[in-house]
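Today's session is about reading a structure prediction critically. Students often jump straight to the picture, but the first step is always the sequence itself: look for stretches that repeat, for charged clusters, for runs of hydrophobic residues. Only then move on to the predicted structure, which in these notes is written as discrete structure tokens rather than atom positions. Here is the chain we will use throughout the hour.
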Amino acid sequence: MKSFIGSLVYCLSLLLVDLCESYDLNNPSHILAQSYAQRRNQALPHRTLSPAATDSQCRSRPLDLVFIIDSSRSVRPGEFEKVKIFLADMVDTLDVGPDATRVAVVNYASTVKIEFLLKNHLTKDSIKQAINRIEPLAAGTMTGMAIKKAMDEAFTEKSGARPKSKNISKVAIIVTDGRPQDQVEEVSAAARASGIEIYAVGVDRADMRSLKLMASNPLEDHVFYVETYGVIEKLTSKFRETLCEVKVEIIQDPCMCEARLAFQRQTQTSLQDLNAKLAVVTRKVEQMENMLGRM
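Below is the predicted structure for this chain, in token form.
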């Protein structure tokens, strides 16, 4: 008899372990076992990001983006190469295409040269190849003239900018290491008034007051400074955060439906009944063990 009771207790303990592995008995709403409906939908994702959110590259909001780069005498050849690397890295972080971001480059010193227009290169590889071919212009720092040329020529529909009806943001990123030799305040204000958002990047000896006169508000979000061209690539991640607009698509959990809720309610009731029955069985086992102990 004692051996039989011992075997019964052992079997009940195995049953309890199995139940605990399948259900959270302390909280019946935490159902770990899967219903048939859940197994049927197991192949479907419950909640995920859109492909754009998990892509290693940036899904940028569509932009008409013009880089305005200083290649005056103060920018040494090796430093200018670092500027070009920075531009190429920036292009890599953007979603480039005819209906996405378009890129142009305005190069300036004492003269201003539009290296290529928004309409000229519509793939990343083509843009980076064009950037690689850019040569410095050498003398002077006519920043105001460069901003005006970008506004009057680079940001026009004729040059590849999208019409206002498309509601595409127009963004200029100015990179300079010096003090402008012409006036920048009025022309920058005119560019901003025309709808161009201006970011000013100062390097080394750049004049902070001029950067602030050029940039859009709030200045803390549009004025950047780095000590040398050697660390300008640090700004790539900053601009990535600023220019990217990753849209997270939430896909509804297919199991969060009436069928699942009904299953949960039914399971909770069953678990409560099971708990009550187990309590009765446990009491009976304890009573039998006490009886055996007195025999």
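Discussion point for the tutorial: Residues 43 and 254 are 10 Å apart (CA to CA).
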